[in-house]
Write a structure and sequence with these properties.
The protein has 7 helices and no strands. It is mainly α.
């Protein structure tokens, strides 16, 4: 369980990254224990993720032919699996690639700051589907909000990667592209395997 001070420090670092403040990772626990504890950060938005999943299921059901159904248990299971895999996939891939790419010393800061930015990035990313599912915006409005949220998420991840990698712009862009594509491919694969 994360302490309040850990959460405050992690979120402060995430905001400093977004705002482009100098030395944004200062204060983060980059020890072995801090690395593993940072994996609890994405779970801080689990209630929001639950609301997002319910809104997503409602939208999918509305787009299906009349009489078609998606079992709520299977849908929930597929989304829980996707959430857990999304948390683990990039760190596991980077664990294999860090040494060959010469990033072994930057691996822990990269994963820790990615973990701490994840809950804050999840807020704008989930909002369009929640608003659409609740009927507060139409498809066009949700698409606009989603594009804005995606741009914000990519910029935030890029700044986080750049801070963790010592300012290496090209490498930071490559890490963000890898993380984004990995998330898309795995999400699509899980959806197809579960028949959703």
């Amino acid at each position: 369980m994360l302490s309040r001070s850990e959460v405050a420090t992690g979120f402060d670092a995430a905001w400093r990254v977004l705002l482009g403040r100098p030395r944004p990772l200062d204060g983060l626990d980059l020890s072995f224990d801090g690395f593993w504890r940072s994996f609890a950060a994405p779970f801080l938005v689990l209630p929001l993720y639950g609301v997002y999943v319910m809104a997503e299921r409602r939208l999918i059901l509305e787009s299906l032919p009349e009489g078609a159904e998606i079992g709520s248990g299977l849908f929930l299971l597929s989304r829980v699996v996707a959430f857990l895999i999304d948390i683990a996939a990039f760190p596991l891939l980077m664990a294999a690639l860090a040494r060959p790419l010469g990033l072994a010393r930057r691996y822990v800061p990269l994963v820790v700051i990615f973990n701490w930015t994840a809950p804050l990035i999840a807020l704008p990313l989930s909002l369009p589907s929640i608003l659409l599912g609740a009927g507060l915006v139409g498809p066009e409005g949700a698409t606009f909000f989603l594009l804005f949220a995606l741009c914000l998420a990519i910029a935030w991840r890029f700044r986080a990667a750049k801070a963790a990698l010592g300012g290496a712009t090209g490498l930071a862009a490559a890490m963000v592209a890898l993380d984004f594509l990995l998330s898309l491919v795995l999400g699509e694969t899980i959806s197809r395997l579960s028949g959703i």
